[in-house]
Write a structure and sequence with these properties.
Pfam families: DUF7668. This protein is α+β, with helices and mostly antiparallel strands. Helices cover 20% and strands 35% of the residues. It contains two helices and seven strands, in the order E-H-E-H-E-E-E-E-E. Strands 1, 2, 3, 4, 5, 6 and 7 form a seven-stranded mixed beta sheet that branches.
């Protein structure tokens, strides 16, 4: 039985990423795996990344020295979101070909808009 994770505006608890958002982040990480750091191939969703953030992600992954891989289902066991008053902060655990679950996370914000959710990809870093 699959448990639905509800999108909550909870400011006190980090919660598991809602199923509704998982395809968005799967596609974002898939673009990063392909070294498409500006996310030009992410066309099904409302996603924004600045050139500065794209450069930071590219540099950080290169410096980390491992190859990022597409997200396995296990990533949803530890990826979280938290309401911040006007947006959700999202942390997606990244995986590499040698380490599996790595120390790297993708940080993004999700905002509500008139045409659905807007995902703003901010950075990748070691948690």
């Amino acid at each position: 039985m699959v448990t639905e994770v509800v999108i909550e505006k909870n400011e006190s608890d980090e919660l598991p990423l809602p199923r509704l958002w998982r395809p968005i982040f799967t596609e974002i990480v898939s673009a990063i795996v392909k070294k498409d750091y500006l996310l030009t191939c992410v066309t099904r969703f409302n996603v924004f990344i600045s050139q500065e953030s794209a450069d930071q992600i590219s540099d950080y992954i290169e410096d980390y020295g491992e190859t990022i891989v597409d997200l396995p289902e296990d990533t949803w066991d530890s990826s979280t979101f938290l309401w911040m008053g006007d947006r959700w902060n999202v942390l997606i655990d990244l995986w590499t070909d040698k380490e599996g679950h790595s120390d790297l996370v993708l940080k993004a914000e999700v905002k509500e808009g008139s045409s659905g959710y807007l995902v703003v990809v901010e950075m990748v870093y070691v948690l």
